[in-house]
Structures are given as structure tokens and as C-alpha cells.
Amino acid sequence: MRIPFLRRAAATVAAPAAALVLAIGGLAALTTPAHAADGPALRLNVASENVGLPIPTTPGDTQVSWGVTNDGPGTANDVKISLDLSDVIDWVTTDVTVPADHIYTWDRGDVTTAQGTGGLLDVNAKAGTPLGTTGIVTLSGTSSNGTFAGDIKVRLTVGTTDLVVNKLSKRTGDKPGSTIDEPVTISNTGTLPANGVQLRLRTTVGLAYAERYSNCVYGTVSENNYNMTNQALCTFDTVIEPGKAYKLSEPVGLDVTKQALFELFGDQAFPVTDATTSKADGPTLSLVPAGTADTGGIPANHQTIDADNTADMVGVGDTADGNPGDVVKVTVALRNDGPGWVGINANDDQPALLVTIPTGTTAVEIPEHCSVWSEDAKSATGEQTPGKPKYVCQSSPSEYAVGEARKFTFGLKIKADTTDTTIGEVRATTAFDNELTFDDNKANDTAAITVTVSSSTGGNQPDTQAGTGSELAETGGSSATPWIAAGGALALVVGAVLFGSVRLRRRRA
Questions:
Q1: pLDDT tens digits, residue range 86-103?
Q2: The whole model's pTM is what?
Q3: Nearest to 380 by CA among 360, 355, 403, 359
Q4: Domain boundary among 158, 174, 201
């Protein structure tokens, strides 16, 4: 008996609007709320509340998938999950033997709060079952010392509604200030009609919708779907028949803004039942017949749009002073001076800052988002070993808005034999030290890290010397606050440092 949870996605059927909301966000688990109990509180969840059974059948490709979450307190004992097939048993086959009472049961034993559990049941329609036949299966759970929040009902329907959109090719060379016309077609390659459809359009921040339609709702979304956060959700009451294609009455217009650089446009269609359009101001966008369904369509587009624009990535250095043996702090930065924002979706070669430590000092404090640079591998090692000559810093998220700076603070110990000014360097580059091809101003890619050393033994204590951060201060990026310390030395209160991740896999752009 197989029990992996969410092994394969179930086929799509014409779903009610409540289920559509979950489909739009991806394959999210549908859960019933837990309630307070003396023992453990458990929740059932399913991959989908609406499962379409393809015709012809495709054994092993359609399941009722479920999972159990134990919210505690403590371990839930003798957990059993039952699936009541009474409403569909006459026209459904399964990959297991169903008892005479039509209730199949999984015995999961004890379930801890960290463990959870899950399972699935392969289901198919019997030969000759009419398209559109539908019924409900019910999942329920019991535990000897715990309480389940409630049952979950899953609707099975013979046939599927499979909506695809036409594939859009990559675009390059669109200039800021221009408008792109995106022709969008929706096809139904399934066997059941959709009584309505919602079309979700999304773009990255460098693109804007040229028109506002009365049957579309516009806004921003926070989920990180390739940074496509500008959304238009358009509703149509058009019936999308199986084997047919429908195109938008006019192309989707996308304005290329002054900050456009590496952009994406995405669209995806979802079936809905009894769709009703909004009453907002503006023209109405509609769907019109466009012949037979596009068998080369795809479930969702992620079209790349590389605009004819630039972004100026700037390396920001720092200065510090101290005596031999002191640990001084320097705050360096990588900043985007625009005009384009930077969000690279094509590969892992993200913007980075390569830091060369001044030769008269030793790096003893390494920011979490920086690691040792390997000259041989031309990549970060992922190690934060002190005392290395070079480090590469790459923040997370890796996108840079116009004017945004990411700061990295190092602790440098001045070597005992250093008696004069020592200089290092920062350089704006990529995670694999490749050229920032979109940056046409190379003059400000590099900046110095300057540590001025005094041979005085006037009592300065380690960890009390700090860089002035003058260049960051001019751009609002300095986090240094001077205060009076022992011996009259200048000290630094370091502000919060942006955390980042280091990409370990080298891939050239």
C-alpha cells in the first residue's frame, strides 16, 4: 500500500469559486480548522476538493490525496483515517479492495506533532460511465486520545476541464516608454465544458497594465512567484467548450516603464462555475471564439521580456582607523542607482559584492550573508572562515530596487606589524564574478576599504575602532553612531545587517 502525500496532482474539473481561490495560489492544502480539546487536536487536509477522472482512464494518474496534521499537545494515539465511497462506488474503481460497507480505512498508529501522516487512493471511472457523472467521497478521522476538527468532502467528476493558454515567445529590445501587445488565447483540451473562466495575469514591477477593464480586478500579490507581483484577475461568463479555443477581444497591453529591465509576464486560466463579472468602470474585456483548441498550449506562461535598459550597480567602500591589535568595523555595500531595477530570473548569477580584505588586516568577523571566495572555482565556498583574503557577499532576496543598497559589516583586526595605511577593495560583480552586462557605468563598480593605522600605544582597546562610513552616510546608508569611549577613541553601534544566502552552484550567465 502506497502512502506518499501529494504524489501527483489530480486533474482539474470545473470548480466552484471557493476552490478556484486555492487553485490560483497553487496546489495549496485545503484544511479544516482545529478546535480545542483535552488531548491532541488533529486536522485533515486534502490536495483538492474537486477531482476530475479522465476519460479515457489513465490508471495511477488520479488520486484522492490526504494528510493529517497534529497540532498537539502531545502524540495522537491509534489514528485511523476512513474514506466513505458509498456515493460513488457504483461507477468508480480503486487500486485497493474496498470493504462491503464501502468504507476504506488507513491505520496510522501514533502520530507525533512533528511527524504528521498522509495517504492516497487511486481512483478511476468505470468504462461506460457518462461524462459529467459526479459524487461525493467523505474523509474522516479518529484517535483514541485526540480530536479531529471535522470531515472533508471531495467531489469526484467523470471528465476533466483542462484549460491551457497559448505559449508566448521571449521578447528583447523593448524600450522604456513603449507598449507591448500580448495576444492571449484560452483553449479547453479536456472533456467537460467550463461554465465560466478566470484569467490571471501577472507581471514584474517594470511592466504596467496599459488599460483597466471593468471585469478585471487589479492589485499586487505578495507570494514570490518569480517576482510577478502586479496582478489583474479577469472574469468571463463565457462557456469554454471542450476542444475549442477562445481569444481575448483585444491584446493585453503592457507599458514598459522607465525601471523595466529583466521582466516577466505570466497568464493562466481557471474554470469557474456561474461566473459573474464585476461592475467597475472602464471597457469590458471579452472572449471570442478562435477555432479549435491549441494542442500545443501550456498551463501557464512565464514569458521573458528583456527591456532595452540599464542599471548601475555601485560598489560602496568604507574607512576606519585604529592601532595595531585593534578590531575595527567597516560597512561596505552594493547599491543600485538605476534607472532599471534588477531581478534576474534566468540563472543563478545574481548581483554580488566581491570584498578584498586590506593586506594589513585580518578578517575576524564575517557577515552571515558573505563567504570565502574561491579564485579557482570562481564562486563562493559557502564557508565563513576568518582570515581569508577575499569574500563574496550576496544578499537575499537578490533583487535590487532602484536606489536600494545592501550593507555588509566586517570586523577587521589590524595586524601587529602594520604601521601605515592599508587599503582593500570592494567590487560590484556577479555571484560567479562575471560581468554585469546591464551596467554601462563601470567607473563606480569598485571602491576602496581604507584602514588608517597609528603606531600610537595610547591605550586603545580592541573592538572599539570603527569606520566612518562616509560614502554610505551621503546616500543614507550608514549605520554608524559616534559615542565617547575609553581613551577618547571613536566607537560604532552597528545597525541590523541584511541577511542573505550564498549561492554555491556556479552557472555562467
A1: 999 999 999 999 999 999
A2: 0.76
A3: 355
A4: 158
